[in-house]
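P.,

For your records, the input lines for the assembly:
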Amino acid sequence: MRRVVVTGLGVVGPLGTGVEATWQALLEGRSGAGPITRFDTEGFGVRIAAEASDFDPGAFMDAREIRRSDRFCQLAVAAAQLAVDDAGWNGSVPFDRDRVGVVVGSGVGGLETMEQQHDVLRDRGPSKVSPFVIPLLMINGAPGAIAMRLGLTGPNYAPVSACATGAHSLGEAARMVRDGSADAVLAGGAESAITPLSIAAFSAMGALSRRNDEPAAASRPFDSDRDGFVMAEGAGVLVLESYEAAERRGANILAELAGYGASCDAFHLTQPDPNGTGAVAAMKMALEDAKLNPGDVGYVNAHGTSTPFNDRVETSAIKAVFAEAPPVSSTKSSTGHLLAAAGAVEAAFSVMALRTQTLPPTINYSTPDADCDLDYVPNTPRSSRVDAVISNSFGFGGHNACLAFRAVP
Amino acid sequence: MEQEVMVKLTELLAQFQVEPGQVSGDATFEALGLDSLDVVELSVKIEDAYGIDIEESDLKDVQTVGDAVRVVVGKAGARA
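Structure tokens returned:
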């Protein structure tokens, strides 16, 4: 079995474009949340989100490509381009193209296109519906567009597991590299679901924070006053390569994706199993896969959505896995919840934690919750020796995925 | 009217990243970089501009800008 390494990080989101800018913003304790500008929120109970406001698709795609892609897909293509640039591919593909895959998913794909074109159907009739609706809304449009742009003809598909998508994509892609069915895979997730229907629907579930007057303070994972997550948009794509291939081409190896665990609660479509059994299983499986002992892990990048339920259950699950829990933080406190992109963006943060030996903080942490009693790296980053990191992602549907990263000497 | 329609189509084609200098009666949509989906999208824009209905069957033999102009003149002219 081959070892899998990360050679490139591509991140686009509410804290900026590029992993360096985003990481810097995290360490400075900035929040990407603000009033929603993508549509008129008059009459909406939730009027805040974390928009990728400085994202310029024109920096990555020509006008024709932009016209033919939904925003989620534009974000995915941008993240993929940033990732291969970071990996030093220098505008070419340093592998046999048939051996390079793309595994990039999304939760809801081109929802914005779907909503807008449904208005067209209702108001103007079927003959006025754009012929581009299907390619724009389909979730697999993102990996398809990435492959077309970069000329990658290896295995290509889009996993879908709601908020666990990004982590599942990376885990499944790592297995492809590990078992030899690909030499390199671009893997991650993308989401752009700050739309009227999405905000109304998540709001109807009671999943979103209603702290409309204090958007920057709204995402407060593990804090006693948390009241839901802040919807975010963006994309994360990582370049995974086999260790041997990366070494051979002289790549800058950032970390090893050493383990992957996945499970399902089989309990409820939107609530986590209060016993945390599935989350525990995923974490244990990732550690076992990576041949890591719990004591080897120096940092847990939590799913940490800022919903009352998730943060409580995740805390108890971490305690069940670790006799002595390492520091845990939720970068969603800064980025908001990137849904399908979250696992991939947070994987990039996990790699950055290893690279810089710095733990990103959980911001907005002010009032401890008796049920959340771990070290959450509150409000300021921390220098700390980290040899291994795990990153949790849990999705509606009961999906759990955990990735384990290890420093490569 | 043909001249007027040609001017309008040139305007609409700009939305498909086609430079005005590229547009002529003989220019095929394929040469201008439009695929079949783009042509359908363009036809919807033409319908809106002229208040006419263009059926799928009308597009069957439309290969060039000139073909499209003839379809529009036929329909808009009949309506006028």
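Two observations worth noting. The CA atoms of residues 14 and 38 of chain B lie 12 Å apart. The interface with chain A takes residues 16-17, 33, 36-37, 40-41, 44, 47-48, 53 of chain B (CB under 8 Å).

Regards
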